Amino acid sequence: MTSTKSTAISLRVNGETHSLTVDNRTTLLDALRERLDLIGTKKGCDQGQCGACTVLLDGRRVNSCLQLAVAAEGREVTTVEGVADGERLHPVQQAFLDLDGYQCGYCTSGQICSAVAVIEELAREWPSAATEDVRRPPEVSEEEIRERMSGNLCRCGAYVNIVRAVTQAAKNEQVTA
Amino acid sequence: MREFDYRRAADAHEAVALLSGEPEARFLGGGTNLVDLMKTGVENPALLVDVRGLPLDRVEVADDGALTIGATMTNSDLAAHPEVRHRYPALAEALLAGASGQLRNMATVGGNLLQRTRCGYFTDLSRPCNKREPGSGCSALDGEHHNHAILGWSEHCVATNPSDMAVALAAFDAVVRVLTAEGSAEIPLAEFYLPVGDTPHRETALPDGALITGVTLPAATVAARSRYRKVRERASYAFANGSIAAALHVEDGTVRDVRIAFGAVASRPWRAREAERALIGGPATPEAFAAAADAELAAARPLAHNGYKVPLIRNLVVSTLTELQEAAR
Amino acid sequence: MTTPAAPPRTSATGTPHTRREGRAKVTGEARYAADIPFAELAHGWLVTSTVARGRIRSIDTDAVLAMPGVLAVLHHGNALRLTPGAGVMGPDANLQLLQDDRVPHVGWPVALVVAETQEQAREGADALVITYDEEPHDTAFRADHPGLRPTTPSPLAMPDVDQGDPDAELAASAVVVDREYTTPEEFHNAMEPHAAMARWENGRLEVVDSNQGSYAVAQVLAKLFSLDADKVRVRSEHVGGGFGSKGLRLPHAVLAAMATTVLNRPVRVVLTRRQMFSLVGHRPATAQRVRLGADADGRLRVLEHETASATSTVHEYAEQSTRHSRILYAADAFRLRTRVVPLDVPTPSFMRAPGWTTGSFAVESAMDELAAEAGVDPIALRIRNEPEVGPVSGLPFSSRNLVGCLEEGARRFGWADRDPRPGVRRDGRWLLGTGVASSAHSAGVGASTAAITAEADGTFTVRVTAADIGTGARTALSQIAADALDVSPESVRIRIADSDFGPAWLAGGSMGTASWAWAITEAAVALRKKLADVIDVPPEGITAGADTTELLGAREQRESHGYGAQFAEVAVDPLSGEVRVRRMLGIFAVGRVINPLTARSQLVGGMTWGLSMALHEEGARDDVSGGLANGDLAGYHVAANADVPVIEADWVEDHDTYNPSGIKGLGEIGIVGGAAAIANAVWHATGVRHRHLPISLDRVLNGGRR
Q1: Is C407 a catalytic residue?
Q2: Which of C150, C17, C155, C92 is nearest to C444 (CA)?
Q3: Which of chain C's termini has less CB crowding within 10 Å, N or C?
Q4: d(Cα C121, Cα C449) in Å, to the nearest integer?
Q5: Is residue C280 within 8 Å of C245, Cβ to Cβ?
Q6: Interface predicted TM-score (ipTM)
Q7: For B126, which residue in chain C has the nearest alpha carbon?
Q8: Which member of A93, A102, A153 has the closest CB to residue C633?
Q9: What are the protein's UniProt keywords (chain A) (predicted)?
Q10: Going by C-beta distance under 8 Å and a sequence separation of 6 or more, which residues neighbour residue C396?
């Protein structure tokens, strides 16, 4: 077998296709940050223990620090830079801004990507550990949102406002849906 | 992290073929555990065979009601699957109690079964660890072990298996389906995880080079009335200090069927067969539940700093079975 | 020409403003130290010791230097010599990196591998073989350790106090509480790992850094590398949290500067999460003994507080836990002691409300025990012991409204309906209880400079070496400048975090906004004077500056503090050991609040830390190896979203002009007393007193012990 420690891949990120050759060790997080200059996605622990690196992969939230870039070929990546509709902020972004759902901002990109996916997961009626009865559809409640957002640590302690922001965005989504 | 080759397998047979004869090769599923272990240097594969894209990502329902769960199905998809939510709610709850939404979207069923212990010494290359480096010693035995095993450990290793999913699978008599170059095989979950003994580095009965293709859950009426309860040091996003998967079927005050398995107490999900035996055919009362827990925990050997797990598990047995019984009324 | 009179402008301060950098933060455009690209950037990866004490015997660099992409391996045998004596607050030997072969603790920097890419640097660091001559180590902290000793006198050290006759007062007391409380090692864990990029640019060392004060960092680097102060420029754009960890210890910046000097190309050094557990300070483990003696009605006769904390052998940091005892309550006699135990552990440091946080847990828990013993309501007990002047110093208070906080908090929390008996409320499997504690934090001001330029287009540019580590400083300072200039905040441009702007206090000690605001206000006065005679502003603008050093020196001594009262309701499952906080309320008296939106966020953030400290945080040190057994975010738990309920923070009137801006600072007070309020609520729920943090489920199952 021929040895190939690096691989030529094409990555689809925020609707754009990028061709690049990556060291097989390169995580999606590092590829975004170091190769594509998409620095919005943050490295908080590099071990899947904080959620700062959360991006959407085929529409689902993942920790990009544990996702090898080479294994993301052919999949659709959405980062915080691709969440807004042009100049118009996504309702989650606007709610974070209005309700002060952050302080230092370092976990914010991950929180926002996660929140966008949480709203989608609720719409799909996925249960969570906070769902009283997993046989029934979950409600859109602060308790559900707290549980679902728990994979995104915030050391400034902005959780209270994060929950308000995500709840507001989720309820708006329900109204418009 | 050392450099490695990367291959993507188109189907399960190709995956097995790619791995065969490559002792330093590993299958890559969601990568949530393997990639982390590669970063810390615990795993140093020369080749990764990516199996995440294999067409093993769905649940099939057999005529007798048994479910066969594809190995590359994500933990999220499995937890959201209607058959699981309605017929094996404890499995859905166990999956949802694990990790975070992000990690559950990545982690596969096969990978979850093979995840390694979260013992801090296992991932600290500067410390002795028999699981990582056979014969080097166990740092946890006389070190930090407040969340280590109380059952089934040996002086060679006191680490616990971190999986929540596997606890529910153990309660429901799951069977692991594997593929090797010789063909496919089935391994009951009860035999899948090996006793610690003096070989803590050998964790499963999976043959060398074998690929997990799926898990079969036999049909079980009792499973429809089941719970998974997990106790941990945070309300979410933390490994268990103790957990229980339990299912209970009571008729006229008598236990007809019961399933109990514990998590975070041993090197493997701990099926509480002593407790089950003590309960079957007897009264469904808190006293009987407590006596059954005691029967199982008679074998417990707590370490210096994890004795709290004994009352914790005992209490979880009583409260979870009581809750199941009350819900059935 | 006549112009209609402008309508009176609404004050910018005191009204809520969303963050100036808010859009950048929610879109991912905000750049942190490791985000900024540089051509020819090389990456440094730190290698740290695996032994707790000893000497480096050998470092085998040849194999690593031969690896692809590796550019250099810096270690004590080849590193640049650094000038001794550097430090932000006095000399700190932790800055003397790679200078000798001594290893003082696990996780001490022993080498830096620099390579073309991160992956290559990391692989080189992993492959570097280092051998040590190990020596026996001791990392086990306890109050009766034979190495226990008084602290070394310093401007930061609280002197011991012997006031009145404590023994006689104890003997005469109707009620005595005499207890020991402990708190574990706790770690800041700002979400942004410490990072710096350093390069030489036009004969100057330029550093893009993650820190709490660029001027202080520039000064330290200049001293370490024997450079003129104006030959170093340190700046940051955004900083992802600090909490005290980004002020004093700068291994990333020092090593990046060293590597760029050796390699003559830009070098970035980013700490890993694990490295943050040994290199940037932490809150040390404490053991505290509190003795309270009181009359039957709860009036304190004596307050004794002896505190011991762990420190390192590199640099003495003493946790000043008696700060709380010096200011909160009146008593006839005081006996206060601060002790340290030097061990083979990393050097502790300031961590959000240092001293106050640990001390308040002990003293506010003891006050609750006294209330229960004396049969006095915990709030009434605190009000009964309200002092007229500083209880130890005798100095007047600049202002003090603790009583207002307790009373307003009690009203809003519903305290009046509380049944004081413990262990009598149940909600299903949960036992319920409520608790209260007082909060306080010093309200200091540090000397700062600031400059404001009136631009030709009618706008204003403020320059001050402030840092916005998530506090909202940018926004608050622009509000302050707008009011001082009597213009709208939209016409104020604020530039911060650049050492070229001149000396300024750090974002620390809850002193940042107060310190910078004073300088900005003075600069605005000077600018308005200058502008009074100006008809046309020239293209380069007109600039006026200010320096508050002299103003500050002219102030009389006062006891100047913020105060607060924290309330918590908890649920405890005695069968599983789980503890959940159901709600928290904090009412604070913190002077003038500039931006209610971000101020509330900071207070709630501090209270969230209090919750996290009470229930989760604990470094588990393995005394066999001397290292941490849980040094990552899966092992070291900080509160996750699901742990945090609705937390409300609000404030009462507190007019204080000791600092002319009226600002007292509120970045830290939110954590003070929080853990005690929760521990007191756990007692009220269960009847079991938790004197050792965290209140983990094993302790709950074991009746408060391990």
Answers
A1: no
A2: C155
A3: N
A4: 40
A5: yes
A6: 0.98
A7: C50
A8: A153
A9: Iron, Metal-binding, Oxidoreductase
A10: C389, C390, C558, C559
